[in-house]
Specification:
This protein has helices at residues 6-24, 38-50, 73-84, 95-98, 102-110, 120-135, 158-166, and strands spanning 32-36, 56-60, 88-90, 117-119, 144-149, 172-177. It is α/β, with parallel strands linked by helices.
């Protein structure tokens, strides 16, 4: 739920991936990254900003635009952040909006390591990074597969499709998984 900034989180991804490559002995160009939701945004941003020579990325339900069901939520949060500084907002996401799997839903509801709140700085930073990455996806040249949940109550499909359509690499795939929830 918290990081000093999206930029810091993307830098963390870069440092972690270099660490994994060095300690495992696996060259970066042999690594394929699978990331879901917010992590997919961070990975797409890392690939855009750092241009690592990786084999590919698989983005599952990338959270390029979160469905905030409150009217004018994003502009309201921006004003409140200017007035109050950073604060946390509680997620509206319920386990049954994420998965059909009852066991997985129960783990979401009971696992204390799953943060249900996000800092407004991170949420707005993710919005800004996502807009930038979707608008500039033509500068990402990595084999990419996007898996889009067909019944996603958490994020919008349209930015995922726009991102995919702009990708210039000839090895790319976009799959809508009908009936799948976000998780």
């Amino acid at each position: 739920g918290y990081s000093p900034s999206v930029g810091r989180s993307v830098q963390d991804v870069d440092e972690f991936m270099r660490h994994i490559s060095i300690t495992s002995g696996v060259a970066m160009n042999d690594i394929i990254i699978i990331a879901q939701s917010v992590a997919a945004v961070l990975i797409a941003t890392w690939v855009h900003d750092y241009a690592p020579k990786i084999r590919g990325m698989i983005l599952v339900s990338p959270a390029f635009k979160v469905k905030l069901y409150v009217p004018f939520a994003e502009p309201s949060l921006r004003v409140m952040a200017k007035l109050r500084g950073n604060f946390f907002i509680q997620s509206y996401v319920k386990a049954n909006m994420l998965t059909h799997d009852k066991q997985r839903a129960q783990s979401y509801d009971t696992d204390p390591k799953i943060a249900k709140a996000i800092s407004v700085r991170m949420l707005l930073g993710l919005y800004d990074a996502s807009k930038r990455i979707v608008a500039d996806a033509q500068n990402i040249f990595v084999p990419t597969q996007v898996l889009c949940s067909g019944s996603d109550f958490v994020v919008f499909q349209k930015p995922q499709q726009q991102f995919y359509q702009k990708l210039p690499h000839p090895k790319k795939e976009f799959h809508i998984l009908d009936g799948f929830f976000h998780d």
